[in-house]
Amino acid sequence: MPIVALAGLAALAVAMGIGRFAFTPLLPMMQADAGLSLAQGGYLASANYVGYLVGALWAARPARAHVAIPAALLAIGAATLAMGFVQGMGGWALLRFIAGVASAWALVNVSSWALAVLGRPVLAGVVFSGVGWGVALAGALCLAMMTHGASASTTWLVLGLVSFGVLAAVWPVLLAHRSAPRASGATARFAWTPDAWRLVACYGAYGFGYIIPATFVPVMARDVIADPAVFGWAWPAFGVTAAVATIWVTRWLPSLGNRRVWMLSALAMAIGVAAPILLAGLAGIALCAVLVGGTFVVITLVGMQEARLVALEHGPTLMAAMTAAFAAGQIAGPLVVSAFIHMHGGFSAALALASTVLVASAFALRAKERPCPT
Predict the structure, then answer these.
(1) Which residues of 42-70 are buried (b: 16+ CB within 10 A; e: fewer)?
(2) Disulfide check for 246: which of 262, 297, 345, 355 has CB 3.0–4.6 Å away?
């Protein structure tokens, strides 16, 4: 059902590309317009991640996709639009929190709905590539607005309107492919096995490991070269790499399996996270964008698919728990950056820690591998 895959792609593009990650390319603009510091940027990012944690826990409750997904996209559009009118840390933090709640709610419900309806790895890859396309869209819009001298407030307004446009497009598809509500008491409770906890822990490590470059890549790029026409391309490149890699990797899933792809992606991401330390200048930033961008949605895809294989009908419960652990890792990431910048004056120590955590998660996943069914 290609129309379902495209609707899922579009929903994730808004949920993640705008609701979660639009702040990343907008941070340099808000620094220039409002004098926002890196530490304040870290606090606003963490407000979004706290919301993401709340939304992930909330998403464990039964819901109908054709109701839950439009509600989440509506909340994202409203919170994004309001960022263009509100001024000050308090208001911004509240709006980023709301967007985070809605983003996690959308991710879990889109994942469980689309994977259940589609069932084919290639189409699942199309759905999850929406995260990368959304990142690329948000980044390209921010780059265009920045090079034409638009303010951060105006850019937030444009992204909010885009979110409402996507909502109008995907809602009819959701209504035409309605899902039954997830069972809450008709079946036995999910048994939390050591393997399930392993997935939760490794997904949380992924959240911590990737979030530092995912939040601060444009800022690091700007520190290397001040021309926005150059450093502004870091985030769109990050998103396009993520989208293409997610679709491409589906051809290897039947032979390699979800966990092996996850493990290899975590190792590649660890190299990318460490790249700005190992390579000076724009080369390190570019390698970071390619390796982290090329793996972070792949891990989301294989992680959500593995949750369905391990938990069966309780897949959404495990998905929500993994997303909550991911959110907890994200909350810690920007706070670690803020603390390390205060102590050391740069990103190197935080990047080294994130890379180490990713390597550890890859070795933990190696403990139990499972082939992906064809």
Answers:
(1) bbbbbbbbbbbbbbbbbbbeebebbebbb
(2) 297
Query: By three-state DSSP, how is residue 261 classified?
Result: helix
Which tokens hold the place of 192? 């939390």
Rounded Cα gap, residues 41 and 3, in angstroms: 38
Using CA atoms, how far apart are residues 15 and 137, in angstroms rounded to an integer?
12
Q: How many Å apart are CA 162 and CA 189, to the nearest integer?
A: 40
Cβ neighbour number for residue 328 with a 10 Å cutoff: 19
Phi, psi angle pair for 161, to nearest 5°: -65, -40
Stretch 250-269: mean pLDDT: 89
Number of other CB atoms surrounding residue 194 within 10 Å: 8
Q: Cα–Cα distance between 316 and 184 in angstroms, integer?
A: 11
Full-model pTM: 0.84
The sign one gets for the Cα dihedral 279, 280, 285, 286 is negative
What does the pLDDT look like over 47-86, one tens digit per residue? 898 999 999 888 877 678 788 899 999 999 999 999 999 9
348, 220 in Cβ contact below 8 A? no
* Contact of 348 with 277, CB cutoff 8 Å: yes
